[in-house]
């Protein structure tokens, strides 16, 4: 939300009402700005103004940033008709402007970042900023040194013109590896493993850039990012 802002838009957003209902309530003299009843829909307010609506203070909380430990079965969307979304796991006010910075598939677990700061999420997710995303991968077939070397050099994905960017790949056990990539192509990790003759059985994201999933967060839990994490 940008300021100055129209009163009807501000109330509609924070009260989570259709604009028409917000306007009707303003017309009924239910809105006050700095203690004065305002009936003009297009009255311009700033972040410093004190707005009350139907007797309740309307406070814009500004830019916010959350990390979520995504469980299996949730989609990274604001609304979905078939599946629960990651937003169903958040108990926070005024989430209409929020979005996921770096989506995960419905069957993938791990770190998801949620914010209402579009510039910040672009810096996190855009390939040109080269932020590594790190995954723990469980595979169907054993991890071979040849497969690791291919991943490190870049592999050819089906229906893609260019090779993937070189990845960081480290074998952790016979059927597991840690993989770090700086791109975000559709189903990229799964397609990369398929390109080297293997199949992903389980996939978990543990890190985006320098932001690491809090080990104290159980699946389905979330917390606000610390100031230092936002700056990372």
From TrEMBL:
Record EC number: 5.4.99.19
Keywords of the record: Isomerase
EC class name: isomerase
Protein's name according to its UniProt entry: 16S rRNA pseudouridine(516) synthase RsuA
Natural source organism: Pseudoalteromonas undina
Chain's gene name: rsuA
């Amino acid at each position: 939300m940008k300021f100055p802002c129209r009163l009807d838009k501000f109330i509609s957003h924070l009260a989570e009402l259709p604009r028409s209902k917000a306007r009707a309530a303003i017309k009924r003299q239910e809105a006050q700005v700095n203690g004065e009843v305002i009936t003009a829909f297009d009255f311009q307010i700033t972040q410093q103004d004190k707005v009350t609506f139907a007797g309740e203070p309307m406070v814009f909380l500004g830019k916010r940033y959350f990390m979520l430990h995504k469980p299996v079965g949730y989609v990274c969307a604001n609304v979905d008709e078939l599946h629960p979304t990651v937003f169903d796991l958040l108990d926070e006010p005024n989430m209409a402007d929020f979005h996921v910075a770096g989506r995960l598939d419905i069957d993938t677990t791990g770190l998801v970042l949620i914010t209402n700061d579009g510039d910040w999420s672009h810096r996190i997710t855009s390939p040109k900023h080269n932020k590594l995303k790190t995954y723990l991968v469980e595979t169907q077939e054993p991890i071979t040194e040849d497969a690791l070397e291919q991943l490190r050099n870049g592999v050819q994905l089906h229906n893609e013109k260019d090779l993937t960017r070189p990845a960081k790949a480290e074998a952790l056990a016979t059927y597991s590896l840690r993989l770090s990539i700086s791109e975000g192509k559709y189903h990229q990790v799964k397609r990369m493993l398929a390109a080297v003759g293997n199949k992903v059985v389980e996939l978990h994201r543990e890190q985006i850039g320098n932001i690491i999933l809090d080990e104290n967060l159980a699946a389905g839990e979330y917390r606000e990012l610390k100031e230092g994490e936002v700056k990372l």
